[in-house]
Amino acid sequence: MANLTKIFGLAGAVAVFTGLAYGQATCAAPTTTTNIIRAEGTTEQVAAVTFVCTAPAGGATAGTATVQVFISPSLPVTSKVLSSSSGATEALLQVNGTAPGTNAAGAAGSVQGTVSGSTINFSGVQLPALAAAATYTFTISNVRVNATSLTVGSGVPPTVSETIFVSGSSGSLVPAALSSVQVSFAENGLGSSSIFKSFNTDNSTPVPAQTFPTGTGSSGGTNNFVICNSYSPANDKVNFTTANAAGGLSAGKSLAFVVRVAENFATAFKEAGTFNGNGAAPTAVDGNGPIALEQSQVGVTAPASNAVVEGTRFAINFSNVPSAVTLYVPNGAITSTNGSAAMAQLTASAPGTAFAAVAGSASSSITSNTGFASGGANTLAAVTISSGAGSAVFEITKADPNNLDRFDIPVFAVTSSNGVAGSSTAITASVSFNPVGSTVIPNFAVTSSSNTVTGSTFNLCTTSLLFPFVTNQIGFDTGLAIANTSTDPFGSAGATAQAGTCTLNFYGSGAPSPSNVVTPNVPSGTVYTATVSSVAAGFQGYLIAQCAFQYAHGFAFITDGVGTSGGLSEGYLAGVIPDVNQTSRGANPLSVAAAGTGETLGN
Q1: Within a domain: residue 281?
Q2: What would the mean pLDDT of 351-355 be, rounded to a whole number?
Q3: What digits encode the pLDDT tens for the residues 376-402?
Q4: Are 514 and 536 in contact (CB under 8 A)?
Q5: Stated pTM of the model
Q6: Are 34 and 185 in contact (CB under 8 A)?
């Protein structure tokens, strides 16, 4: 809240000077057009305030004025300091300017304010003499506050108000505490982020077309991400066209998930502005102003180092990224999927500097064959990951102040075949404004609007083989053979060579302890052989072999002896259980099983 003791003390002085009002202008209640500020922002610009002071019948004498602005609740004022010696800030008071931006800082009738906590002081404002009934028009602009302490709920948004106290020397103004005026409402600038369609692919068959949900909500699709084969330019291209932007994907073999970034109110996302050097209001970089700009000082001649300011930036912050995984995001323009003309694009520039596009793809093989949502640049850029965490920062390059913007950012994951150990810990992503904790304008804090959403987990690519009967009892033994057939003569249409161990799981009488046995590594193009007597002596029952590679096939041979003294012998092919990392084990019989479901005996 404003310092009421100080204000009431000043109001007491008003009573003392009331009898001396002859020749003094009297100030009316201030007016404003209330705006909405972001509750995540530490440098949010509140609406400009105007008030008019009218001279009495005998006119008003020339003099100087002092104007104090008290912010309520007591939010820290964070207007940019332009002079370290004087403490002058960008907060500006103008007198008799025909419009905001008419009087540049330092001109007659224009004063830059100094700040103390939640109070702004404008001292030594030059006031000319006024004829009878003439007026002074005061405009206060470029006031920024730290809004992060405001509590935003589901009800009426919290408000920010200004209470203004005026006084004048030489009897120019009647001292007065003007009525409080609401300058801003505060709301979260970011809507709830979502993960849509975590994709599951083994890279051995085309991924069916996927469709994004049209509304908001929780994630769709599966969360397991499986990479069984290494990537090549021939099999990792992505079809993410303009037509598909709101409708779907096809053949997205390295697409892990899509992060939806939503705007919570129509002017929360702003584009950059360019100063023209004469103290007037900045214009939009794309020439489509006047629109909501990220840093819209008026009446302040910007330093050369601040000639171009950045648009709103948001970061997608990733966690729990396995060390063997590289994440990629588009570096071309991405259009809003909510009927808006807004655009966002990955930026390589530091906070407080103009947008700089990311050049090229970090991997020439990770490209799209048609382009991303805007139909623009077709390449991807790698996200820098350290200790499992990293961020991709995007800038709003075109704002739409009339719509709620929404960006669907595809995230691609690349790793080598079975390069990531199976894990139930998913990659997570959170969306926040950017930068956080910086000294530049704009600046933000991480608040409750930066919700964390769950992306993909990683599972190994496997083949599971069912041996329905094996025995090493009553004189019988069983020979086992597991072939790694991922080496074949089919070239680019064939399998990709893989290797790994197999875990033999025994179920039945006399199972070993522990009941699973791990084989040596089985290289591609080789066959592992063993007898039950050598790995689980005295066992009889069934066996499931889980091999950490695709294209495993098995054969079992049961006998109670060979040669002239041999007796009964029987052999069979092991059944192949569908990869449970990608689909649950179904009990469909082979004759009616749909492709990719059920169990396949002898295949």
Answers
A1: no
A2: 84
A3: 345 678 899 999 999 999 999 988 888
A4: no
A5: 0.76
A6: yes
| Cα–Cα separations (whole angstroms), residue 362 to 314, 316, 383 | 22, 18, 9
Nearest CA to 253 out of 496, 522, 501, 594 is that of 496
Do residues 49 and 139 make contact, with C-beta atoms less than 8 angstroms apart?
A: yes
- Angle, CA 114 vertex, CA 110 and CA 117 arms, to 5°: 145
Assess whether pLDDT exceeds 60 at residue 99.
Answer: no
Where among 144, 165, 187 does a domain terminate? Answer: 187
Instruction: Quote the Cα angle for 125-127-132, to 5°.
Output: 150
CA pair distance 350, 330, nearest whole angstrom = 18
**What is the identity of the amino acid at 310?**
E
Instruction: State the pairing for strand pair 181-187/35-38.
Output: parallel
Q: Say which DSSP state 513 is in.
A: S
Q: Cα-flanking dihedrals φ and ψ of residue 432, to 5°?
A: -140, 160
Residue 288 within any structural domain of the chain: no
- Do 498 and 529 fall within a single domain? yes
Tokens for 126? 């030059």
Alpha carbons 301 and 280: distance in angstroms, whole number: 8
Nearest to 434 by CA among 348, 299, 525, 312: 312
Residue 289 tokens read as 């102003």
* 3-state class (DSSP) for residue 468: strand
Distance (Å, rounded) from C-alpha 294 to C-alpha 281? 12
Query: Do residues 168 and 67 share a domain?
Result: yes
* Inside any domain, residue 295: no
Radius of gyration of the chain (CA): 35
Domain boundary among 187, 210, 226: 187
User: Which 3 state secondary structure label does DSSP give 16?
Assistant: helix
Which residue type does 76 have? P
- Does residue 282 fall inside a structural domain? no
Assess contact for 502 and 528: CB atoms under 8 A. Answer: yes
Neighbour order of strands in the sheet with 313-319 = 334-335, 343-346, 390-398, 313-319, 428-434, 452-454
Q: Output b/e per residue, 440-450; b: 16+ Cβ within 10 A.
A: bbbbbbebebb
Let me know whether 473 and 429 are in one domain: no
Give the CATH number for residue 517: 2.60.290
pLDDT tens-digit readout, 459-512: 777 899 999 999 999 999 999 999 999 899 988 778 778 888 999 999 999 999
d(CA 560, CA 533): 12
Residue 333 contacts residue 242 (beta carbons within 8 Å): no
pLDDT tier at 366 (50, 70, 90 boundaries)?
A: very low
Query: Could you tell me if 434 and 574 lie in one domain?
Result: no
Q: How far apart are CA 16 and CA 25, in angstroms?
A: 16
Query: For residue 232, what are the domain limits?
Result: 189-267+311-460
Residue-wise DSSP of 255-316: EEEEEEEEBSSTTSS-B-EE--SSSSPPEETTS--SS-BSS---S----GGGSB----EEEE
Place of tokens 């570096």: 331
Higher pLDDT, 236 or 302: 302
Count the domains in the chain: 3
Closest CA to 183 of 166, 168, 164: 164
Quick check: 93 and 140 in contact, CB under 8 A? yes
- 452 contacts 430 by C-beta, under 8 angstroms: yes
